[in-house]
Amino acid sequence: MVLHTGQARMDAERLRRGLLPLPEPVARTVLVIMVGLPGTGKSHVSRRLATDVPLAVLESDYLRKQLFSSPTYAAVESERLFRAIHLLVEQLLEQGVSALLDATNLIEARREALSRTAEVHGARPIIVRVEADNKVIRQRLELRSKAPSPADYSDADWRVYQRMRSSLEPIRRSHFVVNTAKDIEPVVQKVVQEISRWQKHAST
Q1: What is the pLDDT of residues 75-131, one digit of tens each?
Q2: How far is CA 82 from CA 4, 47, 73, 148, 183, in A?
């Protein structure tokens, strides 16, 4: 078990206060792990899922700005942020609250750590990879730079996307793939059905 520092516990509590009212606890929780590069549409898919399934949505870009008023995106800053996010995930699952982590989650070891954390707490990890064509992503990121939306907390631009592309590691576990340049509803409904089956299945 990971030992969390006092700093991580304080950070997790601060992040928790920044969340919207949490959904009601359920008997069988899930942890939805979003995977995807900047501009692929992870937050769009996350919000769509949360309209059909009661989930505490942990959007890393938003939470970063709750923890750091002027983010630098330095490695030490990101390490502190995700230590707090992972602790918050644990706390939510312990309390019976299903969660969705909206972050790039490019590294397999970190995804696997999240999946194992979910399983230790009796939750079902569900991985959703979000993608789109490079041309579409570039258009989105350029539009974001020119006309930022108040609902978009990401600061990533096309250069950041290009730099991060090589960091995306293959996903070893079974997962869903949604292309946001197309109709996302068929995949969204498959994810919703998977969650529904898990939560309705009586524990043994």
Answers
A1: 999 999 999 999 999 999 999 999 999 999 999 999 999 999 999 999 999 999 999
A2: 12, 20, 12, 25, 31
Q: Is 31:98 a contact under the CB 8 Å cutoff?
A: yes
Total residues found in the chain within this entry: 204
Amino acid at 64: R
Which residues 6+ apart lie within 8 Å of 120 measured at CB?
A: none
- Give just the sign of the alpha carbon dihedral 102, 107, 109, 112: positive
pLDDT tens, 126-180? 999 999 999 999 999 999 888 777 778 898 999 999 999 999 999 999 999 999 9
**What 3-state DSSP class applies to 130?**
strand
Distance of CA 165 to CAs 151, 168, 186, Å? 24, 6, 26
1: pLDDT confidence band, cut at 50, 70 and 90? very low
> Is the distance from CB of 86 to CB of 18 less than 8 angstroms?
no
Q: What is the pLDDT of residue 4?
A: 64
Q: Which pair of structure tokens corresponds to residue 75?
A: 């490695």
In the numeric block, the tokens 């730099």 are attached to 163
Helix (H) or strand (E) holding 77: helix 75-94
Contacts of 178 (CB under 8 A, 6+ apart): 45, 128, 129, 130, 131, 184, 187, 188
Sign (positive/negative) of CA torsion 178, 182, 188, 190? Answer: negative
